């Protein structure tokens, strides 16, 4: 009779629980060095061989390159000169390469000022790249300021024209022309530079509505005979002047005689004059009103 087979019992391997290896003491990596190196204080700041190797590799990258110290409070001018030279400053301001710099277009540029500025920047220690960046930034700033001032002048001219057209009505063109001719006559050879003087708001003196009013009145007082310009004829009336003139004529017996009598030799002229005065009062685009 055959004995029944006894099933085998699998063997379970139980891992031995080992104590974790203790972390090496900082600086233990130096134990393999000779005694002179092992106790050298320079190596004490490295906790392991990796940190020492990393710094050594970084130092190798800088070997052969020129070095300079950070500025110190007790530095003299020659110390700064050596420092700036190490950072790339050329020997003289004339040694900068300005071939890639161009002043902003349409903006007055003072070459002498540029030379003085470059000299100052050289004294401050700027190298070629720094100088180029400063000049380019300054050029852009000047260009932006010029564009902003041009916009102020444009806005002022627009506002001045709108204001004086409202005030002077159909006499605007002639009064503005008279003001400019009076300004030219009284300003002499300097009238252009005077007219281009900038006021506190950024606008030009010659385009300010108050200045135009003053010189329009001065032109009237000086008389057309002294201000013969491109128009060559008397100025027109503002709405207020036209209203006052019409009232004066209506109280003038000699004018009324011509105005009311169709057979009078000046009847047609008087009718035309009253029509023009009425148009000037309304600010209409009628023929020029002759005072």
Give the gist of this structure.
The chain is an all-alpha fold. It is built from 11 helices and no strands. Helix 6 (about 170-185) crosses helix 8 and helix 9 packs antiparallel against helix 11.
Q: How many helices in DSSP terms? A: 11
Question: What is the helical fraction, as a range of percent?
Answer: 40-55%
Rg measurement, Å: 46 Å
The N- and C-terminal alpha carbons lie at a distance of 156 Å
Order of SSEs:
HHHHHHHHHHH
Number of strands: 0
Please report which band the strand proportion falls in: under 5%, 5-15%, 15-25%, 25-35%, 35-45% or over 45%.
Answer: under 5%
Structure report:
With 291 residues, this protein is mainly alpha-helical. Among the domains are: 77 residues; 44 residues, no CATH class. It is built from eleven helices and no strands. Helix 6 crosses helix 8, helix 9 packs antiparallel against helix 11 and helix 10 packs across helix 11. The chain is elongated. The relative contact order is 0.06. The C terminus is likely disordered.
